[in-house]
TrEMBL record:
Residues 15-268 form the Pyridoxamine kinase/Phosphomethylpyrimidine kinase domain. It comes from the Bacteria. The gene is thiD. The keyword Transferase applies. It comes from Streptomyces lycii. NCBIfam families: HMP-P_kinase. The lineage of its organism: Bacteria, Bacillati, Actinomycetota, Actinomycetes, Kitasatosporales. Coiled coil: none annotated. This is Bifunctional hydroxymethylpyrimidine kinase/phosphomethylpyrimidine kinase.
Length: 271
């Protein structure tokens, strides 16, 4: 008899183009040796040019998917992505309370193309209901600003950004500095400067540095990173080790990002 691989659940939206959302999550989970499962919150009509349409699922459908997975199969880590509305954010936060597994919250707000993936009216529910149940929250700098009002434009600002997010109650926060202005100087393999992130629980600080690849095909980066953290946690890693491994995974996926359609292509999971 085969032993089941570690069990990871994504609660997120579908990207019809296959680059972000649950499609990126499931590819990441498979690549990292785990069994990926999905609770779909929304369906997007999406390609390399942006989001052409988005439809959220009824709360009842989200609850039913979650119960089906948890009641029979079980989960060893959960990741949340696009949650679309205040109603869905609150329902998912309620389901995750007492799930008994680490929860990675990617507080998805707006896509790289500027398409809204979360209603403005849902921000307060993310702050007061979802972030408190997070083991790790993984905001980028735009999401930090939306959630806390703190605008971080330089590496020195990341600590202040982290403190502001920790104020809402996640156990750890990973501030993704990928949107900071890049440094100059290109290495032989095409990397330019560094992508710097800060992981902290308010006591320990872990600064993560990786080569910054000058590749515009980065669709799905955030989904991939958060899913990789969840996969590593499901395998039994502690948070700092899980995040370090996830950062390495996403750096490889960005370096291998490829052209698809006529816009922004996805990160690659087969590198
Ligand atoms: N579409 C869906 C369903 C997503 O969940 C996300 C990100 O979480 C995106 C699109 C945006 O991806 P990106 O900003 O990497 O282009």
């Amino acid at each position: 008899m085969q032993i089941s691989p570690p069990l990871v659940l994504t609660v997120a939206g579908s990207d019809s183009g296959g680059g972000a959302g649950i499609q990126a999550d499931l590819k990441t989970m498979l690549a990292l040796g785990t069994h990926g499962m999905s609770v779909l919150t929304a369906v997007t009509a999406q390609n390399s040019l942006g989001v052409q349409g988005a439809w959220e699922l009824p709360v009842e459908a989200v609850r039913a998917q979650f119960r089906s997975v948890v009641d029979d199969i079980g989960v060893q880590a959960v990741k949340t992505g696009m949650l679309a509305s205040a109603e869905l954010v609150e329902a998912v936060a309620g389901l995750l309370t007492g799930v008994g597994a680490p929860v990675v919250v990617d507080p998805v707000g707006v896509s790289k193309h500027g398409d809204p993936l979360l209603a403005a009216s849902a921000l307060d529910s993310v702050r007061t209901k979802l972030l408190p149940v997070a083991t790790v929250a993984t905001p980028n700098l735009d999401e930090v600003e939306q959630l806390t009002g703190v605008r971080a434009g330089r590496e020195e600002d990341l600590r202040r950004a982290a403190e502001a997010v920790l104020g809402f109650g996640p156990r750890w926060v990973l501030i993704k500095g990928g949107h900071l202005p890049g440094e100059t100087g290109t290495t032989a393999d095409g990397a330019r400067g560094e992508a710097v992130d800060l992981l902290t629980d308010g006591r320990e600080e872990h600064w993560l540095r990786a080569p910054r690849y000058d590749n515009r095909h980065t669709h799905g980066t955030g989904c991939t990173l958060a899913s990789a953290v969840a996969a590593e946690l499901a395998k039994g890693a502690e948070v700092p080790e899980a995040v370090a491994a996830a950062k390495e995974y996403v750096t490889g996926a960005i370096a291998a990002g490829f052209r698809l359609g006529s816009g922004i292509g996805p990160v690659d999971h087969g590198w």
